[in-house]
Amino acid sequence: MNRTNHIAYSVLELAAVTQGHTPADSFHNALDLAINAETLGYKRFWLAEHHNMSNVGSSATAVLIGYIAGGTSKIRVGSGGIMLPNHAPLIVAEQFGTLESLYPGRIDLGLGRAPGTDQVTAMAIRGNNIQSAHDFPQDIIKLQTYFSASNAHAKVRAVPGEGLDLPIYILGSSTESARLAAALGLPYAFASHFAPAQFMAAIQIYRQNFKPSAVLKEPYIIACVNVVAADTDEQATYLFSSVQQFFRGVVTGQRQLLQPPVEDINKVWTPYEEEAVSQMISCTFVGSRATITADLKDFLQETGVDEIMVTSAIYDHHARLHSYKILADVFNREINS
């Protein structure tokens, strides 16, 4: 990686619902985080689409994007992502065309293939279109067509949406998504915060097979990672136990509202659960400013990614704000100095 490159840093938000609080509290905290992130120089604030999860509030993703964009003024706001097989491309074009019309030059459309939920819930969402994930490449092209000015004389048009310059990103957690993003010449965001196994292979495939497009001349990679930063390594490790409990729920299927941190995580999980969670979140950075700086520099040197997108499932809102502040300081004073 060329060390003179500016590495953008951004936020991925799930509107995690914490124990003792409501989704409404999570939405207000998300906006507060976005306002702070804007002042700290974060480039974008993305919200992820998930369904049937008691601890994740970002199911109505487009609605939340409007809420966040309406409460901020500069930071880009978008989806990380919209799970396209859950939606008709025309509806997505109209929704994001509306958002872009309201907040011009600030809306991103990240698209994923996965359902963002379990298979039973996916059936409830998709009905007879349960196999619609196979249409993902064609549906992206449909979206691009709806956004193009050349679609003005078609029988089906996206109004608003038509003729708007709304950037599309491909999200993925596998090499298949990397090949698609490369073939379409679109920027690529990898979910290394929970699916790191194919990360290095995927970004290599993306770079090797990238075809320049009208919207992107060179590959552009966003790596999503978990970060828990605090004033000391010990404090960060303590806060990190909430993240570990969150992913334990993913591994076991026993989801709970985001739990407070614990002094001894080994009293919460089994050795098997620890191993499974550790593999799942190996792209995680925990510690003080010095520790985070050293570990992130190594990661950037190894991967050469263009942007880091951070998610932080920290229980205490003020501790979460402080973590993002420390990270911004790391980028501004250490990585991009």
Automatic annotation (TrEMBL):
Example of a GO MF term: oxidoreductase activity, acting on paired donors, with incorporation or reduction of molecular oxygen
GO cellular component: cytosol
Pfam family, one: Bac_luciferase
PANTHER family in the cross-refs: LUCIFERASE-LIKE MONOOXYGENASE
Residue stretches making up the Luciferase-like domain: 19-307
Species per Swiss-Prot/TrEMBL record: Pedobacter antarcticus 4BY
UniProt protein name: Luciferase-like monooxygenase
Family stated for the protein in its record: To bacterial alkanal monooxygenase alpha and beta chains.
